[in-house]
Design goal:
4 helices; Diaminopimelate Epimerase, Chain A, domain 1; alpha+beta; 17-stranded mixed sheet; about 270 residues
Amino acid sequence: MQDHSPSIPFMKMHGLGNDFVVIDARVSSSVTPALATAMADRHRGVGYDQLAEISHTSASNADLHLTFWNSDGSQSAACGNATRCIAAWEMVARATDRLTISTDRGTLFARDAGGGQTAVNMGDPLLDWRQIPLAEAMDTLSLPIDGTPVATGMGNPHCTFFVDDVAIIDLAARGATMERHPLFPERTNVQFAQVTGPDQLRMRVWERGVGVTLASGSSSCAVAVAAARRGLTGRQVRIDLDGGTLHVDWRDDGVWLTGPTAHVFDGVWHG
């Protein structure tokens, strides 16, 4: 019997094991929640932490637009590692070392940082409770939650706990609980971070709509901002995650995220 399911080309990429399916909707079908959840299944689909959809942009100052999907079919305005992976691939295709990307988070700027590293400016952090958003007015530097975490917006909400030893944290249990804490009406990404040296942090992450991941770009940005605001580090830090190392630099023009990328394989989805 002939299969009439649509054939959708895709790429599999990862940044430090934080893995993505990438669909180029400029030459293929657009993503739907049903497609996103089907492809996310690691047993019956392809499997990913996030899906990134490339499309044409209406912004006159951008080269392309990115839309991000979580593995549960929900959307996110930001995904730092996927942005870096796609920027690296697109810069090679365009024979350039700079790229401008529109997202629901805003316009992001990417560049080839040399040595196999790709950098992206993730924009200014959102520090006001309304922007993150939180359910009510409060000090975002010290939330009224056991462990007094820090709340940060990077186009998506983040809740950062600073602890003495990240290795002993039950990340799956605490992450799942905190993701849906009533203070975060749009749910939240959850990080546990430990200062391991001057301007150096060890971090583990639970991603909203995904679960435990080996790395997260926007979470790394949020942790760096939270640590600098707390006076634990400077504004330029190294972050060691389960999947590897990222570098974050909170500058006057935004939070720059730098690290390696990998294009693993190309495939075709038959549904």
